[in-house]
UniProtKB/TrEMBL annotation:
Organism per entry: Streptomyces echinoruber
Single annotated GO MF: phosphatase activity
Comp. bias regions, Basic residues: 22-32
Family matches, as Pfam families: SpoIIE
Full protein name: PPM-type phosphatase domain-containing protein
SUPFAM superfamilies (UniProt xref): PP2C-like
InterPro entries: Bact_Sigma-Reg, PPM-type-like_dom_sf, PPM-type_phosphatase-like_dom
């Protein structure tokens, strides 16, 4: 708290001048009051009631009069229903717009090229008409090499978005500070523990701690990659291994058993990174969340991600965006509607030069269905640079 001594003159800071036309009241547009929002329906109802009680023609029992009275009350009722429905729909659209903008800031598009790696990413939300989810990914170039994170927070919606925000914020800072992947993973684990403790206290202040609270059951699967001078190293906590596409061959990046997801269990004392060999020019890594391979068609069959990638590889060399677009198009055809879980996809393609040879921008940078979602399907949000 700032105190001022008695008798000391108060310093007044200059304020920016208000617009000439707006004035003080016009500088900020206030939302309409509820009483004003329902003023028009109230007037309609009052006019219809006055017509029924005071108009002499309304007292007549003829067929024409009854028909006219029914038409008047039907019009008033229809206007009331339409007006009442429009206000919540407007608020819902605004809330979805704000949520989508928040996730766009949080899950920002990866650069189109990072140290010779062309990138393309996209996400699908399990909530119909929304883009908010718990999937997270990021690609950063550091002095330790290119570092990549891919994760999936339990559940979806705003709660999962908060968990993803905590992990992404920690990763973007720790990726430059920690010399090895083990230290980076421990930083993410501590950030998640702090977030879950704060969330448990906020949701249940009198619970005496986070144990026994539903927040204590939250977890996040995390995959960390480090690509330094062509050498690929990884740490995996319960996340699906990426696919490596080399020529016409498609195989998992590694076959080692992953560690448990972050959250429920403490990390082991020793965290050696898994060596995944070299990534030569022309090779592609496809990172994804389990919502991709677990997506089912109406007959209950899982989405064949490996077969889809093999078909792309058989057609010849493909760019990162070509792989992304083909996988997303096949996934949307396979599920035939909304996915049951959030979906995220990140494609890394090692180009032969330090700069990306694939041009960016334009309509070719958009994923299938972007801007024109099919009926019953959630919007596809491509995350490459516009």
């Amino acid at each position: 708290m700032i105190r001022t001594r008695a008798g000391a003159p108060r310093r007044t800071w200059p304020r920016p001048p208000l617009p000439a036309r707006a004035g003080r009241r016009g500088a900020r547009r206030r939302p309409p009051r509820p009483s004003l929002a329902f003023g028009l329906p109230t007037l309609w109802g009052a006019a219809a009631l006055a017509y029924k009680l005071a108009c002499p023609h309304a007292q007549d029992g003829g067929v024409g009069t009854r028909l006219l009275t029914g038409v008047v009350f039907f019009a008033v009722g229809t206007g009331l229903v339409v007006h009442v429905r429009r206000s919540p729909l407007r608020e819902l659209r605004q809330a979805r717009k704000v949520a989508g903008a928040a996730q766009d800031v949080l899950l920002r598009p990866p650069p189109p090229c990072v140290a010779g790696l062309a990138t393309a990413a996209a996400r699908l939300s399990a909530d119909r008409g929304a883009t908010v989810g718990g999937d997270l990914y990021e690609v950063v170039a550091t002095e330790h090499g290119v570092r990549v994170v891919m994760g999936d927070a339990r559940g979806h919606g705003v709660a999962a978005l908060g968990t993803a925000a905590a992990l992404l914020g920690s990763f973007r800072e720790a990726a430059h500070d920690e010399p090895d992947l083990g230290g980076l993973l421990r930083r993410l684990d501590r950030a998640l523990a702090r977030h879950l403790r704060d969330r448990a206290r906020a949701e249940h202040p009198s619970g005496g701690g986070e144990f026994g609270h539903p927040v204590a059951e939250e977890f996040v699967t995390v995959l960390l990659l480090e690509i330094d001078a062509g050498e690929v190293r990884a740490l995996n906590c319960g996340h699906p291994w990426p696919y490596r596409v080399t020529g016409h061959r498609v195989e998992p990046l590694a076959r080692a058993d992953p560690l448990p997801p972050l959250g429920p269990f403490p990390l082991p004392a020793d965290l050696p990174a898994v060596g995944c060999g070299r990534m030569p020019p022309g090779e592609t890594l496809v990172l994804y969340t389990d919502g991709v391979e677990d997506a089912r068609d109406p007959r209950g069959r899982f989405f064949p991600l490996a077969a889809t990638l093999a078909a792309v590889a058989h057609d010849g060399p493909a760019t990162a965006r070509t792989v992304r677009d083909t996988v997303l198009a096949g996934l949307l055809r396979h599920i035939g509607g909304s996915p049951q879980d959030d979906v995220a996809l990140l494609v890394l393609h090692h180009t032969a030069r330090a700069g990306c040879s694939t041009p960016t921008g334009g309509a070719q940078d958009r994923a299938p269905g972007h801007g024109r979602p099919a009926s019953g399907r959630p919007p596809v949000v491509p995350s490459s640079q516009p």
